[in-house]
Amino acid sequence: ERKVGKFSAKESTIESPSNFTGTVGTATELIIRTKDRYGQVRRSSANLGDRMRLNVSSATWSCNDVCGRNCADEECCCQDNFDGTYSLAFTPKQAGDYKVQVVADGQMLR
User: How many helices (H) and strands (E) does the chain have?
Assistant: First the structure.
């Protein structure tokens, strides 16, 4: 096993529970699991600061946040958990499809 290396946007993933559904007026939560370039799970903060951004949008609404310690917007939040994960949360305003995008170091997470 290799020593865990620096954060890799290409290998990191957005995870959602198997029963992922958004409910109007209720926070929907997702987790970003950070990994290194070898796909190994990181166990500490990636210290990305303003290099990671969350964007959530629907046909009629959008919000975005820079990932950090505190949430800048109650409707849309990306928070560093300092354990190799980031928590994402947004509150749908109406029923419909929502697109969640996370960009870190200029690369879209999958």
Answer: 0, 8
52-57: strand order across its sheet: 62-66, 52-57, 99-104, 107-108
Return the SS3 of 51. Answer: helix
Q: Per-residue pLDDT tens, the chain, 110 aa: give them.
A: 678 888 899 999 988 754 456 788 888 888 999 999 999 999 888 777 668 888 988 888 888 888 876 775 568 888 888 899 988 888 888 888 888 889 988 888 88
Amino acid occupying residue 106:
G
pTM confidence score:
0.82
